[in-house]
Structures are given as structure tokens and as C-alpha cells.
């Protein structure tokens, strides 16, 4: 199992667990995190699974594809830490990944 | 007890949003399907990829447990007693409710011609249909697609890519012409030709011919017979309103609801594909289902109403990512925008931007959504000015909105 340190909108911290190879979005939905709608089902079509990846992790993720960058281009609270959770596949080396809801306290 | 009938996008999102908003009473989703609730859009877009139940689940199984949402699967609701606030299940069991949300969705329109029951004729609505279709994909065979709407085009593109010779029977000269502008439809038509897909225009299907219970050909209205091994029917959907109708609720091409999504019966609401706003349109889209689900949850929990969202739609037709924001009207004035490797069409109504269609131009789509959602009118004169850049315009607008919310 992979563990993810997740900061919710109210600043509350949780540890999510996920199977290696699944997506970050899946872990988030399973835990019932508030503020993630993810309506398109991981197709990189809706932009509603926006998360902020901790700075010390951003460089360790595969770079976003053009589709993802485009969807994020006008998202609220977009920063260099912004990613779409549906596009992040949880390889074993991402154990301990630290992620927050944009605008988290 | 909050009961929700139907576990598609609308029903599941309503349950999720109720918990998000802090509702701590009982929630039960009643689903006629036996699978874990799933995303429907991939069924017609990605059926040939060997979809698994898990990969297209709306939420992982853990969600229902962690959120304390009861999911009653494989359970058909036979009847609603609106006066006594009770549901009767197929088993005869009765369930009481305090609030009922109908999210019964839609089902595919049937052709109603002889031979429709033959094997090898499919229409995609549920996961079983997608599996059946996937198992029928054989390189070098022929497929006949009835209807040039979203579903027909998506399926046709997948089949063509898998080496199936595809023919589409379309009622109008251009694909998707009920939904998109002529310019966008022409781009799609060209793309379909390049995929090797043939289109027969204006042909109505009179019936199907078969041998040993399996379809072998399509008989057209003019008498022609098109031999085929597979038929896919995609001629639109009708809302599932029978339960509501029998219970005496007001229905008319949908379960009629007011702005607050309330039906004509006390403590019964309707959301998603099955609901139609009185005097307004019925929208069949994931975005609408999600929005209405979130809106009703906010209402039940006494939270402020959500800001209305401009309706948006997406479709993947082979390599083409078609997106629309706003609902185009036939009289809209259209303007094409130059986009690298893609296409964008702006639709203006009363001199203002009302809808935008894009193909492989996500950045423009996102910008258009931002502009339309902000509710700040974009005049045709501004958009027509030389050097107008919609993405830069949306960025500037977003910055202004952020500034004013900081100031506030």
C-alpha cells in the first residue's frame, strides 16, 4: 500500500492509503475528501480534481501532459504546485506523497 | 431517511454532496443495477479498451463505507406512494422516506422496426451493453451505426480504429447538426471521412434482416440492403419518468421541477437527465447532473445556493476532443477563431458571447467557461477586434475577479 499525506480544505491532515498503480484521484474519492468533484471520471476533461502537490514532491512526478496543463490554465488558485489528481498514477516511489486541497488553511 | 432512486452521476453525487455539506442522517441509494455505480461516458468512448468495473466506478467501493451511504444494488423500485411517502420495491418490500430524490436518468430511444431483437444489434446505455459491443469488435467485419449523434460518432470512431468497416446512417447531411454549428459539424464530417467511415445521408432504417437470430443486414427505406455483422443504434434518449408519472407527479418530457428542483409532490425532488425545469430545457449531461446534485444537497443542508454554472458537454470522437460550453441556438451568429491544430467557434446571441464549441482546443474551452461563468458579457465587437485573444481575455477577467474578491 501507498500512503499519502493529505491536507483538507479546513487544514485537517489525513493519511490516505492506495494500491500502487491506482490514481491519486481514486484514493481521494475513496476517503470522501470534500471539495473534489471529479465529474469526468479521470478523462482530463473537467478540471475538477485540482490539487496542490507539496513543493518537495512536484519534481518527482512525471510532468503534466498538454491536456492537463490546458485544463489547469485557468483554474482557481493555480500555482506551480497544481496538478489534476486523475492524472497522477501512484507508483511505489510516491509513497509518502504530500498533497493539499487548493486554498487549504 | 434520505432515499435516492438511481445511482448514476446525479444520484451518487447527491449522496456525496449531502455528506460534504454535513448531512448526518441516513442516506440510501437504490440502484436497479447490480454493479458498483459507474461513469457512463466511457462506455461509448472506451468500450474496446477492456473496461473493468473498478476502472470506471464513480467512486471506489470504500467510499460508500467511509461516508456511511447505503447502496442497495440490483433493486428496482416498482412504485412511489407520494402521499404516504413510501417506495415499493420489486420484492414487494416497502421503504419509507422523509425526502426522496429521483435520479432515474434516461434510456435509449428504440427504433421500433422489425428485426430489432436480433443478436448483433446493440445500443449503449449500461455496462453490459459496452461489454457486448466490445466482444463484437472483429477486425475486417462491418458495422452499421444508426444515428450521427454523440453516441453514434463516438462508437463509430472506436470501431473504425479497431479495423471495422463502419457505415453511419444519418438523417441530416452533417453529423451532430442538431447540437453543433455548421462549421464544427463540417470539421467532424471531414474527420469521419479520414477515419474511413462512410455516411449515408437521409436513409431511414426500415428493418433488420438476420439469419439464425443474428443480424446480417440493414434494410433501408428505399429498399436497399446493407450487409453487416454488427448494428449500433444511437438515436437519442428518453427520460425515465414512468415511476414519477404513475405516482401522479407532473411530467412532460421529464419530471417537471422548479428552480429548487422540487417536483409537484411534497418532499420529492428530481435531478439529472430525468428532470426538466418547468418552461425550460432538459439537459442530458454529466455536468448538469453533478451541478443539480450539489445544488440540492446545499439546499437540504440550508447552505447558500450555488452560483449557476454554464452548461458544458464533452465528447471524444477518435482523436477529436469536442467540447461545448453554453447551449447553442440555431439563430446564433457564429465566428471561427484561429487555433493551433484545433478549431473553435464562438456563438453570439444579442451581440454577446453565448456558447463556444472547440475541437482539440482545451485552452479556449477553459477560457470560454471562465468567461461565461463569470457572467461578465463579452461583446461581439470586442471578440471581432483584430488581435483578440480569448485566453488572455479570460486570464485578465480571472485576475480582476480575484482582485475584487480580495478587496471584499
Automatic annotation (TrEMBL), chain A:
<dbReference type="InterPro" id="IPR001041">
    <property type="entry name" value="2Fe-2S_ferredoxin-type"/>
</dbReference>
<dbReference type="InterPro" id="IPR036010">
    <property type="entry name" value="2Fe-2S_ferredoxin-like_sf"/>
</dbReference>
<dbReference type="InterPro" id="IPR001055">
    <property type="entry name" value="Adrenodoxin-like"/>
</dbReference>
<dbReference type="Pfam" id="PF00111">
    <property type="entry name" value="Fer2"/>
</dbReference>
<keyword id="KW-0479">Metal-binding</keyword>
<protein>
    <submittedName>
        <fullName>2Fe-2S ferredoxin</fullName>
    </submittedName>
</protein>
<keyword id="KW-0001">2Fe-2S</keyword>
<feature type="domain" description="2Fe-2S ferredoxin-type">
    <location>
        <begin position="2"/>
        <end position="105"/>
    </location>
</feature>
<dbReference type="InterPro" id="IPR012675">
    <property type="entry name" value="Beta-grasp_dom_sf"/>
</dbReference>
<keyword id="KW-0411">Iron-sulfur</keyword>
<keyword id="KW-0408">Iron</keyword>
<comment type="similarity">
    <text>Belongs to the adrenodoxin/putidaredoxin family.</text>
</comment>
TrEMBL record, chain B:
<feature type="domain" description="Reductase C-terminal">
    <location>
        <begin position="312"/>
        <end position="389"/>
    </location>
</feature>
<dbReference type="Pfam" id="PF07992">
    <property type="entry name" value="Pyr_redox_2"/>
</dbReference>
<keyword id="KW-0223">Dioxygenase</keyword>
<keyword id="KW-0560">Oxidoreductase</keyword>
<dbReference type="GO" id="GO:0008860">
    <property type="term" value="F:ferredoxin-NAD+ reductase activity"/>
</dbReference>
<dbReference type="InterPro" id="IPR016156">
    <property type="entry name" value="FAD/NAD-linked_Rdtase_dimer_sf"/>
</dbReference>
<keyword id="KW-0274">FAD</keyword>
<protein>
    <submittedName>
        <fullName>3-phenylpropionate/trans-cinnamate dioxygenase ferredoxin reductase subunit</fullName>
        <ecNumber>1.18.1.3</ecNumber>
    </submittedName>
</protein>
<keyword id="KW-0285">Flavoprotein</keyword>
<feature type="domain" description="FAD/NAD(P)-binding">
    <location>
        <begin position="4"/>
        <end position="293"/>
    </location>
</feature>
<dbReference type="Pfam" id="PF14759">
    <property type="entry name" value="Reductase_C"/>
</dbReference>
<dbReference type="InterPro" id="IPR028202">
    <property type="entry name" value="Reductase_C"/>
</dbReference>
<dbReference type="InterPro" id="IPR050446">
    <property type="entry name" value="FAD-oxidoreductase/Apoptosis"/>
</dbReference>
<dbReference type="GO" id="GO:0051213">
    <property type="term" value="F:dioxygenase activity"/>
</dbReference>
<dbReference type="InterPro" id="IPR036188">
    <property type="entry name" value="FAD/NAD-bd_sf"/>
</dbReference>
<dbReference type="InterPro" id="IPR023753">
    <property type="entry name" value="FAD/NAD-binding_dom"/>
</dbReference>
Amino acid at each position: 500500500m501507498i500512503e499519502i499525506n493529505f491536507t483538507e480544505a479546513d487544514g485537517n491532515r489525513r493519511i490516505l492509503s492506495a494500491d500502487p498503480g491506482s490514481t491519486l484521484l481514486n484514493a481521494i474519492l475513496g476517503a470522501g475528501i470534500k471539495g473534489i468533484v471529479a465529474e469526468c471520471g479521470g478523462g482530463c476533461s473537467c478540471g475538477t480534481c485540482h490539487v496542490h502537490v507539496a513543493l518537495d514532491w512536484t519534481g518527482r512526478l512525471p510532468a503534466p501532459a498538454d491536456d492537463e496543463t490546458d485544463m489547469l490554465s485557468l483554474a482557481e488558485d493555480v500555482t506551480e504546485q497544481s496538478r489534476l489528481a486523475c492524472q497522477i498514477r501512484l507508483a511505489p516511489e510516491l509513497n509518502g506523497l504530500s498533497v493539499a486541497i487548493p486554498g487549504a488553511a | 431517511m434520505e432515499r435516492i432512486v438511481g445511482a448514476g452521476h446525479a444520484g451518487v453525487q447527491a449522496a456525496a454532496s449531502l455528506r460534504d455539506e454535513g448531512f448526518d442522517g441516513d442516506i440510501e441509494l437504490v440502484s436497479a443495477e447490480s454493479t458498483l455505480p459507474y461513469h457512463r461516458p466511457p462506455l461509448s468512448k472506451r468500450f474496446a479498451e477492456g473496461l473493468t468495473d473498478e476502472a470506471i466506478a464513480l467512486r471506489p467501493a470504500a467510499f460508500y463505507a467511509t461516508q456511511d451511504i447505503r447502496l442497495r444494488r440490483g433493486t428496482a423500485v416498482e412504485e412511489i406512494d407520494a402521499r404516504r411517502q413510501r417506495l415499493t420495491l420489486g420484492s414487494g418490500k416497502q421503504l419509507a422516506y422523509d425526502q426522496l430524490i429521483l435520479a432515474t436518468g434516461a434510456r435509449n430511444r428504440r427504433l421500433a422496426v422489425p428485426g430489432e431483437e436480433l443478436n448483433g444489434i446493440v445500443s449503449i446505455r449500461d455496462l453490459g451493453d459496452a461489454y457486448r459491443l466490445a466482444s463484437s469488435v472483429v477486425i475486417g467485419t462491418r458495422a452499421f451505426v444508426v444515428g450521427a449523434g454523440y453516441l453514434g460518432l463516438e462508437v463509430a470512431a472506436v470501431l473504425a480504429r479497431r479495423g471495422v468497416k463502419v457505415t453511419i446512417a444519418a438523417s441530416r447531411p452533417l453529423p451532430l447538426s442538431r447540437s453543433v454549428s455548421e462549421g464544427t459539424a463540417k470539421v467532424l464530417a471531414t474527420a469521419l471521412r479520414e477515419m474511413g467511415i462512410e455516411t449515408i445521408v437521409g436513409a431511414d432504417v426500415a428493418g433488420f434482416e438476420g439469419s439464425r437470430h443474428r443480424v446480417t443486414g440493414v434494410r433501408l427505406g428505399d429498399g436497399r440492403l446493407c450487409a453487416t455483422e454488427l448494428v449500433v443504434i444511437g438515436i437519442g434518449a428518453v427520460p425515465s419518468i414512468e415511476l414519477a408519472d404513475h405516482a401522479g407527479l407532473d411530467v412532460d418530457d421529464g419530471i417537471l421541477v422548479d428552480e429548487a428542483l422540487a417536483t409537484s409532490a411534497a418532499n420529492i425532488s428530481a435531478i439529472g437527465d430525468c428532470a426538466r425545469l418547468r418552461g425550460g430545457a432538459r439537459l442530458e449531461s454529466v455536468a448538469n447532473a453533478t451541478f443539480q446534485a450539489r445544488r440540492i444537497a446545499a439546499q437540504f443542508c440550508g447552505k447558500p445556493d450555488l452560483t449557476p454554472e454554464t452548461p458544458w458537454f464533452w465528447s471524444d470522437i477518435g482523436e477529436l476532443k469536442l467540447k461545448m460550453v453554453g447551449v447553442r441556438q440555431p439563430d446564433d451568429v457564429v465566428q471561427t477563431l484561429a487555433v493551433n491544430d484545433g478549431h473553435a467557434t464562438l456563438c453570439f446571441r444579442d451581440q454577446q458571447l453565448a456558447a463556444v464549441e472547440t475541437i482539440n482546443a482545451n485552452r479556449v474551452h477553459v477560457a470560454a467557461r471562465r468567461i461565461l461563468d463569470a457572467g461578465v458579457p463579452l461583446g461581439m465587437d470586442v471578440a471581432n477586434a483584430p488581435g483578440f485573444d480569448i485566453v488572455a481575455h479570460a486570464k485578465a477577467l480571472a485576475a480582476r475577479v480575484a482582485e475584487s474578491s480580495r478587496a471584499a
